[in-house]
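Priority: medium. Attachment 1 of 2:
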């Protein structure tokens, strides 16, 4: 077996030639069966509970003046879990809700209109010492309460820090949800860049499927896992959400918003997150990699951050394996992949009434049509039978249930696998139940008073000017100061600022003693000087060089971008070792790309599951490839870019993106 560490060392020692040979030989780190004391997904009901529609009028925040007070709160929620006697098991979650009545998972939906600002006062009313998730916080990470001046704070004594990010929003920097803008319950503790209790979203962008979620530094994975996420839908004159809209788009109740997530639960119904010896994934990333964690920092071997998480229960809008009754007509599904690490490859299969698996498939995969993605409608509709949905992304699809025999069921299937995604579809399934997501039962009689519409006029898509600069950024996998796998961002070229001036490593002992002098390049931790510094108003092409063994879903704040294509990394490219200065001044191990050489262009026809002709803020960067995007940076200030595998961004796979002077 070739472990990730062996792969990293071999690639550094020998350069690209062996590096690319090893890509095909890697044993991927995979999910493991649930440990003792955890709920068995095979014993839980499938398609027994109705899925909540996040676009149900009763689930939409309302305000006569577009001003809201929304609080993160703790609540109990029924997810559909049952104990062995068939008794419902409630789950403690954190959710967003109006100030007072309690939150929900997912949070209720904002429906805003393009060009009309919305004001939100985000409040933190979470309890402390709080629920069990507090016990899995890894305080060795670069996180909110490890920043200079914050070291004496703790979740147990001061409460969990949060900050809400409107994902996909074209937002002024002070309202973007930067991880350093966090705040504790009652605003008692405020992050070093905190500015205001009220966030203004100008909504100066076309209609699209946005979402809001927590983005606190170093604990995003835990806060989102606890339930802090929800939809934010933008409407405009084309996509009105009303019957008779100009594009013939299905409207409520035939428009449905579905947030897909994976989780683990204890036998008592509590959320479970691995962080200790014996937990799922611990051996993959700690024991199996011969990592020795110092017992003074990790008593009993934890809690420690682990590089990925895959749940064995699939949930949609906070409900395990739900179902929806539908009419034989076109439905519009807004799909959100809200998982930590799981890429989804979505298909639909017709099965007999009541079927709970794929042993009696009648037909499929069924065709469906993609009409949009993250930040808006596409340049044209694309009909597929399989759709890759990277973590953090949204896809807008039309599925026609007229083509299904009345009374039958359609199961939404996932063939993305239970392991880090490397580009293979289908991926390996390790858990027994994660190949199914939810079901649609074609049992409602067609309401002939509402026309069954087929969308027309879908010709929007990304509109991005010609770039004036090409920027080479890179994705790395190194190790932190304890030897744990550490995903990292960085550059594939010497860094320069918005005016073209060199950006140098800090003249500080930690960097100088590590040999990091002169112009910055290679893998770089979050706290080091900013290297992504576009000029205000500029349009840049980004080449994203992925020299890791996995695909990464890359997200840029502020912008929407157009995906230009992909190239293989050329044979002349070398990857060499380079130290990484950690937030505490200790050294980890990273890499630098030498002689970055573009190889052959990748034929998009080789990836029919990728539909990328819409305004995107997420892109799948495949291993051994250079992914090319272009974006216009039209608002000044401090933003971020990162991998949207939440476990990755919390362990340094995130960097500042500063537009204009002042980085």
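Attachment 2 of 2:
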């Amino acid at each position: 077996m070739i472990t990730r560490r062996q792969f990293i060392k071999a690639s550094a020692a020998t350069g690209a030639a062996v590096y690319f040979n090893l890509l095909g030989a890697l044993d991927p780190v995979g999910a493991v069966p649930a440990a003792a004391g955890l709920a068995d997904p095979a014993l839980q009901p499938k398609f027994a509970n109705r899925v909540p529609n996040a676009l149900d009028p009763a689930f939409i925040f309302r305000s006569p003046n577009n001003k809201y007070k929304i609080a993160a709160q703790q609540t109990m929620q029924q997810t559909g879990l049952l104990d062995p006697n068939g008794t419902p098991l409630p789950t403690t979650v954190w959710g967003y809700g109006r100030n007072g009545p309690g939150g929900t998972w997912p949070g209720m939906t904002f429906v805003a209109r393009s060009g009309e600002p919305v004001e939100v006062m985000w409040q933190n009313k979470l309890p402390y010492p709080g629920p069990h998730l507090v016990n899995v916080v890894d305080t060795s990470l670069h996180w909110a309460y490890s920043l200079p001046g914050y070291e004496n704070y703790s979740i147990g004594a001061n409460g969990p820090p949060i900050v809400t990010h409107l994902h996909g929003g074209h937002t002024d920097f002070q309202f973007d949800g930067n991880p350093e803008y966090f705040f504790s319950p009652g605003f008692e503790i405020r992050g070093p860049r905190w500015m205001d209790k009220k966030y203004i979203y100008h909504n100066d962008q076309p209609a699209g499927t946005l979402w809001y979620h927590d983005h606190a530094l170093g604990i995003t994975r835990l806060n989102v896992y606890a339930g802090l996420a929800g939809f934010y839908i933008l409407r405009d004159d084309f996509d009105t959400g009303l019957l008779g809209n100009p594009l013939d788009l299905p409207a409520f109740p035939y428009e449905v918003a579905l947030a897909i997530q994976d989780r683990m639960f204890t036998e008592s119904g509590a959320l479970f997150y691995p962080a200790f010896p014996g937990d799922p994934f611990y051996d993959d990333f700690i024991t199996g990699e011969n990592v020795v964690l110092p017992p003074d920092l990790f008593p009993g071997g934890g809690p420690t951050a682990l590089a990925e998480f895959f749940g064995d229960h699939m949930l949609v809008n906070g409900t395990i394996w739900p179902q929806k009754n539908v009419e034989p007509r076109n439905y519009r599904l807004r799909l959100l992949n809200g998982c930590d690490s799981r890429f989804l490859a979505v298909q639909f299969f017709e099965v007999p009434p009541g079927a709970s698996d794929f042993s009696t498939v009648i037909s499929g995969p069924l065709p469906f049509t993609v009409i949009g993605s993250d930040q808006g409608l596409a340049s044209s509709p694309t009909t597929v039978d399989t759709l890759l949905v990277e973590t953090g992304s949204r896809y807008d699809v039309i599925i026609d249930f007229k083509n299904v025999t009345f009374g039958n069921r359609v199961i939404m299937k996932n063939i993305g696998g239970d392991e880090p995604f490397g580009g293979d579809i289908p991926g390996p399934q390790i858990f027994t139940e994660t190949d199914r997501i939810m079901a649609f039962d074609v049992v409602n009689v067609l309401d002939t008073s509402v026309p069954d519409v087929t969308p027309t006029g879908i010709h929007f898509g990304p509109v991005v000017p010609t770039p004036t600069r090409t920027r080479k950024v890179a994705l790395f996998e190194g190790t932190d100061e304890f030897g744990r796998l550490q995903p990292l961002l960085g550059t594939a070229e010497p860094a320069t600022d918005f005016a073209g001036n060199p950006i140098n490593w800090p003249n500080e002992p930690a960097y100088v003693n590590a040999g990091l002098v002169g112009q910055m390049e290679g893998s770089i931790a979050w706290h080091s000087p900013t290297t992504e510094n576009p000029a205000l108003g500029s349009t840049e092409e980004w080449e994203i060089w992925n020299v890791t063994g996995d695909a990464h879903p890359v997200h840029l704040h502020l912008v929407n971008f157009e995906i230009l294509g992909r190239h293989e990394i050329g044979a002349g490219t070398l990857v060499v070792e380079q130290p990484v200065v950690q937030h505490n001044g200790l050294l980890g191990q990273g890499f630098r790309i030498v002689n970055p050489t573009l190889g052959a262009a990748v034929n998009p026809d080789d990836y029919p599951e990728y539909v990328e002709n819409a305004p995107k803020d997420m892109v799948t960067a495949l291993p051994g490839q250079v992914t090319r995007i272009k974006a216009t940076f039209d608002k000044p200030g401090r933003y971020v870019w990162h991998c949207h595998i939440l476990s990755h961004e919390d362990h340094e796979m995130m960097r500042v993106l500063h537009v204009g002077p002042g980085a």
